[in-house]
Every structure is written in structure tokens, then in C-alpha cells.
């Protein structure tokens, strides 16, 4: 109620309300401009926030589009359970694109070696799922503060008929006038939370009481030390000779493929404590993802090909 | 690494903080990237791994110390050429505000990029090199800022360290700027002498320029009054989409979803739907959490009316006592954004608020010579980066306010249906 009073007396929004209003505007614009949009749902906090915003944008109607999950097969079991519970409570359709199927069909080949991941393989599965389901706009939880290549993304981001992004030839985006016009075979990515930072996400989750997977909270887990972060031990991980499995109290800042998502040591077991911890943090959240560490332009190169 | 200040907000202090969007303008090498890097660095918004990456690159390139400019020069091509090629967005937060920076590059496609960054900005920072003073580029930037009606302009006279922090040099540049800016429509202009490289008057007050009585840049950005940047007088609600849940619980619900462009709407207000002209009263203003008694720009809400009228996307709900203009013939300040020049008597898609229809450029009244800011009446071709005043005719009337009064209902874009590209941005006169 206090929040309301401040709003009403001064006739301006605080920054979280303004970000929320902007995201709702973008989601409604997607619904109005496209025939068959979906939300790309990874089970991570950003796509959870986007889904929450979609619930608000169309209330009292249901979210009018499906959630699409690109399943690497290397999941945290917690993520899948969370996804299925959410789908049920929202009463929306779930579309799963399976990397395992792409491998079985010979569309992609599994990487070999110790640092093998299925991260790059997701691109093919994602683009296939977009094509077979005739999706003309995939809504993502990408934020411009995440990574330098993302800093140039538009709210409505055009992809050519190979699903590729051309950062040098993007449509200019002025005021709040978005251009989602496309030709056959092309599609769009839309990013309603472009202007949010990691801190904004946590403050918002805290304020809105949004449910998130337990993996974000500090918990005991079997882990392996690898390139400066704690990688969860799982059946998919090939141990090196000198590596050992330890039990640590950790939490995850981002959730991706279980083979590459590093945890950090932490005692933060509530959203509020996490928000406090994040505000004191000296490393970007993607600093613990080995997919981004491969080279300085790793993200840009993947994004050009059609990555999230 | 030395971190000057700890400005990260405690999470509980944010309730009342506003969002301020600003853009930076300056010619190549005036120090835009360095200034942004400095703001982010001194406000503790650069993370260690980012700093390490920049340090590595700085060393590789043989720079002394950390080149803060590298932080903003994001994409591969840019890092290789050492220039910024497109609009990039940056974020930082202080205990007082959240900031969004639209970082726009300073070379060939400059006009197009600056206009993009300027379209949503509350403030523009215009950089001037203290050694060179006001140059043609500076005038161009100030002109674009006034054309786009950015409410606040901060002229930062940079590289003061290279002129021994002299007050005379600073005053001379202010005089130069004011001489030509008096011809422009700018409401709020401030001047700050800085050194982006050394940090003087960016976050911390400079000890080298005691003659300067004003605030450092960050303090200026944190405290400037921005609540009145949005038009709070003219109630305008473009309908984005219609919400019809058709569920058991909300069987007869019919809500008009949109984001209030300007003004305030209250329950019970008498409204008119444009263009049909039907009138009704606001029955409720709904959000996911609650029903509101009043709502204002830029809130996203769903409005229900007392009467059943046929309303769809592209219509606009306005207060009956305060209606926008409505016409098929518009005079527009147009900036051409595409490599392909404007084709005479060709139909373009015009997108204006949530409304879309076809339009034709009937006449180029004059073009502006961006270097002299004078009018060219003989040259009528519109190429990339050209700014001109044109007459446009649309297939149906457009409901608009002049851009000067309302940035949301006074702006439009043109889309070429042959390529689907956004080819022009327009401000209705
Ligand atoms: N001495 C001095 N050099 C500066 C200052 N600000 C920027 N520079 C230098 O000017 C050059 C161009 O800066 P940069 O930030 O890349 O300019 P941009 O092209 O506007 O982004 C770089 O070598 C900077 O180190 C300043 O305040 N003083
Ligand atoms: Mg630069």
C-alpha cells in the first residue's frame, strides 16, 4: 500500500514499475504483431520473470502463447520439475525441442573431450523447433547488461531465413515503435526485459514474491573445481585425473546446462539475501559459465548463428 | 584495483528511485567511451571479470594502464577497428537513480544512431574537446537534441587537463555554444568542465578547478528534475490489444490493453474513442494486482468502458474534453535512416502509436544542411542521414499531437513494404 501512495502523490513510477510497464508493453506488442509467438523458457530466473510479466500483461486472460523449452538432456532435475509445475499452474502449452533427438537424427554431432558440452548444439535444435512449430517470434529473457554483444540487441530483433542475427544491419528502433514485419521463413526474437540488470531481476523477484527453482538458493551439493568455479557433479561429467568430488554449500547465479553451469560458494538462502549478495558481487553472472569463457567474442559468435 | 566509491544501492532504498535515460554525443575521439567507462568504473558498475578482459586487451594493444573506452566498445568489428558502430546500451545504478545510457557512435551513420538513442532519452550529454571548442559536429548534435526534444542537455567540456584546467577556455566555449543554441529550441542547458580520463568532475568534484561552482556530472544526473519530462496534461491511450478472457470467472470481460502515452485517466472519466468518435465512461482501470482509481503515463493497464463499443488495436481512447488533432495531411520533420534513398510517390507503411496504415511523401518542403543548419530548397532527394521537412498524406486520418507537445503521439516511423526495413523517423510539426 505504501508503494501505491508514493505513486499516486507524485505521478511518476519508480524504476522497477517503469521497467515492468515497459516489459508488459513489449509483450502485448508481440502478441499484436505476430501470429504465433512463444516464450523461450529455460527454467532460469530471467525466463521465469518474463513468464510472470506475461501473466500480468494479459490478465485476466491466460498467457495467450506456448512456452518452448530447448532440452539439452543435461538438465538439473529441479529445473524440469519446476517447469512442469509452472506449466500446469498457468494452463499453457509446453513445446519441447530435444537436443538428444537432434543428435539421434544426425542433425548435430556430440562434442568430444573433457570440456564437451551440448551448448552449441542447442542452436540447431532451437532453430528446428522454431521452424517445425511455425513460430514467428521467440520471446527471450536476454538482458543487455549480461554480455557486451547483447548490449546492442533491439527489443524486436530480426533473424534471417537461416535464423541468423546480423548485428551490423539491425533495424533502427525509435521511441516505442517496433517493426516486426517479416518475410516467409524469417523470424523475430523479442526481449521484453532488455533494460533490466541482474540486480533489477532480484529486486523484482523479491518484491513480487516470484517462485524460483531451489538451485538459486544456497544448498549442499557434490561439486568439482574447474576453471575457477564449482561445477556440479553429475553422470554427464567426465572427471580428470587430478579432479576430486567435494561437498560444498553453493548456489547458482544462472542456470544452464548442468555440465557447464558453475556455482558459487554462498550462504544466501532467501531472495533477500541473494539480492544483497548480488549487490556486493564483483563478478558478472556469466563469469561462471564456461561457454562464455571460450573466447572474448564467444557470445557474439553464437548469437550471430541463432543462439538465444 | 582501486575502486573509488561504493555506490551500490542497498536493496531496501530503491522504492522511490526513478529511471533516467541519457545519450552521449560527441565527435570521434572527444572521449565519449572514456567518459562512460569512467562513470561505470567510479560508480562501481564494472565487474572484475570485465575489468580483467579490458586489462588484457589494453596490454595487447600496448596501452598504458586500463583503456576504459574498451568497456563500451562491444562488438568484434568495433574492437578490431577501435570504433563504435551502433547504439549500445549500458546500465548503472546509484543510491539515487537507475541509469540507462544509449551509447551512440560518432562517425558516418551518426545522425541515424544519435536519433535512435535520443528518441527515448531524458537527457543528452554533448561532449566538446576543450582544445577545439564548439565545432560543426557540436552544432549538429545540439540541433538533433533539440529536434528530438530531449528535455535536458548537459554540455561537458572534456579534456580540461589538456588546457591546464583554465577557466577562460571553459567560459569561451560556453559563449560559443550559447551564441548558436539561442536559435534552437532547448529548454534546459547546463555546462560542466571535466576530464573523463582523470575523473575530474565526473563522479568526484575536481580539485583542479576550484573556480567551478556547479555540481559534478553524476550529481547533476542524479538530481535533475525529470518527473515533468512526460506530458501529464493530455490523456492519450492507444489501444494495443483487446483482452477477452472468455473464462468462467470473467465471461463478459472486455479490456483495452495499452500503455498510457500521456496524461492521467480516472475511473468515471468521460472518454472518446478515436477515430470512431463514440463516447463512454471509464468503468475500471485494471492491473494484475488491483483495480486503480487513476493511472498515468507510462503505466501499462487495461481499461474497461461502461458501454459496449467496437474498439480494436490502432484506436485511441482520449478524454472527451481534450482531443488530439486528426488529419490525413501532416507536416513532418523526417530523418531518413536507410541506405536506399526515398522513392518519390511510393507508398510506405506508417506506424504511429499502435496504429498502422499506408502513407505517401507528397512533397519535400526543404532539406536541412546539417553543417550550417540552413535550409536547402533546391535539393529534394532524401538520402541516409538527411533531415527534411516533408508533407505526408495517409490513407486514413491519424490522431496526433505535435511532437513538441507530445513525444509519444507526435512520433512516427516509415517502413518500406518492399524490404520491411524501417526507413525513416518522423516528428509531426
Ligand atoms: N588527456 C585526456 N585525454 C582524454 C580524455 N578523455 C578521453 N581522452 C582520450 O581521447 C582518446 C579518445 O577517447 P574515446 O573515449 O575513445 O573517444 P570517443 O571516440 O568519443 O569514444 C583516447 O585516447 C582517450 O584516452 C581526457 O579527459 N583527457
Ligand atoms: Mg567510442
From TrEMBL, chain A:
Swiss-Prot/TrEMBL GO biological process terms: sulfate assimilation
Region (Disordered): 279-308
UniProt keyword annotation of ATP-binding present: yes
Key words, A-Z: ATP-binding, Nucleotide-binding, Nucleotidyltransferase, Transferase
Highest taxon of source: Bacteria
Molecular function in Gene Ontology: ATP binding; sulfate adenylyltransferase (ATP) activity
Pfam families: PAPS_reduct
EC number: 2.7.7.4
InterPro entries documented for this protein: PAPS_reduct_dom, Rossmann-like_a/b/a_fold, SO4_adenylTrfase_ssu, Sulfate_adenylyltrnsfr_sub2
Family, as annotated: Belongs to the PAPS reductase family. CysD subfamily.
UniProt-listed PANTHER family: SULFATE ADENYLYLTRANSFERASE SUBUNIT 2
Record protein name field: Sulfate adenylyltransferase subunit 2
Source organism of this protein record: Galbibacter orientalis DSM 19592
Lineage: Bacteria, Pseudomonadati, Bacteroidota, Flavobacteriia, Flavobacteriales
From TrEMBL, chain B:
CDD domains named among the record's database cross-references: CysN_ATPS, CysN_NodQ_II, CysN_NoDQ_III
GO biological process per UniProt: sulfur compound metabolic process
Tr-type G domain boundaries: 17-232
Keyword GTP-binding attributed: yes
InterPro entries xref list: CysN_GTP-bd (IPR041757), CysN_II (IPR044138), CysN_NoDQ_III (IPR044139), EFTu-like_2 (IPR004161), G_TR_CS (IPR031157), GTP-eEF1A_C (IPR054696), P-loop_NTPase (IPR027417), Small_GTP-bd (IPR005225)
Top-level EC class as recorded in UniProt: transferase
Coiled coil: none
Enzyme Commission number(s) from the entry: 2.7.7.4
Keywords: ATP-binding, GTP-binding, Nucleotide-binding, Nucleotidyltransferase, Transferase
PROSITE patterns documented for this protein: G_TR_1, G_TR_2
GO MF term set: ATP binding; GTP binding; GTPase activity; sulfate adenylyltransferase (ATP) activity
Superkingdom assignment: Bacteria
Protein name as it appears in the record: sulfate adenylyltransferase
The organism's taxonomic lineage, starting at the top: Bacteria, Pseudomonadati, Bacteroidota, Flavobacteriia, Flavobacteriales
